Amino acid sequence: MAAAVVAVPDDLADVPRAGPSTPPAPAPAPTAPFADGRGDTLAVRTFVDEDTDLAHITRLCEEELSEPYNVYTFRYFLSEWPHLTFFVYPTPADATPIATIICKQDTHRERTNRGYIGMLSVQRGWRRRGIARRLVELAIAEMEARGAHEIVLETEYDNEPSLALYERLGFMREKRLHRFYSNGKDAFRLILPLASYPGTESEEEADRGRWLVAQGPDAVSELDYILAGPQDDAVPDMTQGWPDVSRLTLVPPRPTRPDYIM
Questions:
Q1: Is residue 41 classed as helix, strand or coil in its secondary structure?
Q2: Which among 130, 205, 233, 257 is least surrounded, fewest beta carbons within 10 Å?
Q3: What residue stretches are annotated with the N-acetyltransferase domain (predicted)?
Q4: How is residue 46 annotated by DSSP?
């Protein structure tokens, strides 16, 4: 039996139909060309769609990263945060990217807006030209503009170039994650507290203290409070004699079992 054809009145033709829908992704931040360490002007853009970009992401990550990722991992990031994936090209006319960074941003423990750098890959022949730093700076700026309080990532414990890059940008080593990668290597989790860190009375003191240390000497009075604990009239002021916060050094964290972000 042939299916019946139901005519739709003209005045109802444009009425939206009920059904599943996907919220539109946030518009990407404008990007601009930048000069690399050799003076060449490189082009930057954000993710367009899977047909255009997924094969390039897979290639860059397989060639340059030690950790294997499957297509579902990439789709997890790209489906929700396409605006947090950036590509670098030798020229605006090039169709093949030489570097990429892939990130996400969501709520951590129901109180902190946390950005996360998942993958960063620069083609071998284009390294040591400031491209990785530029991508990280773009990602941080975009996540901070969208309300991030902190940025976290993991990198291999012995990847000295990566550790040096992130520490120059202000990241701190939060903990060592044993056998974090599939090749059996340990990782360091790094964290960058941003100026928008909320800091409320309900925060854990360790989180608040960590952020205060990152802010430097201007935060000394609040840091003294965290170190000494709350005071009252019956207890003498225990903050007297604490060293200047600018002299405090961060002690590498003790080895702990990993608690994965994802």
A1: strand
A2: 233
A3: 42-195
A4: E
Please give the C-alpha separations between residue 94 and each of 71, 89, 134, 167, 218, in angstroms, as whole numbers: 24, 6, 19, 32, 47
| List of domains in the chain | 28-156 (3.40.630.30)
Take residue 124 and report the two structure tokens written for it.
């071998």
In eight-state DSSP terms, residue 255 is E
64, 67, 71, 74 alpha-carbon torsion, rounded to 10°: -80
Q: Tell me whether residue 127 is exposed, middle or buried, using C-beta atoms within 10 angstroms of its C-beta: 0 to 12, 13 to 18, 19 or more.
A: middle
How far is residue 36 from each of residues 29, 89, 94, 154, measured CA to CA in Å? 20, 11, 16, 25
CB–CB of 239/225 below 8 Å?
yes
**Whole-number Å distance between alpha carbons of 196 and 199:** 9
pLDDT tens digits along 175-223: 999 999 998 999 999 999 998 666 544 455 555 565 555 555 555 444 4
DSSP for 101-151?
EEEEEEEETTTEEEEEEEEEEE-GGG-SSSHHHHHHHHHHHHHHHTT-SEE
Asked if residue 119 lies in contact with residue 101, where contact means CB atoms within 8 angstroms, the answer is yes
Residue owning tokens 């205060």: 212
> What HEC string does 62-101 produce?
HHHCCCCCCHHHHHHHHHHCHHHEEEEECCCCCCCCCEEE
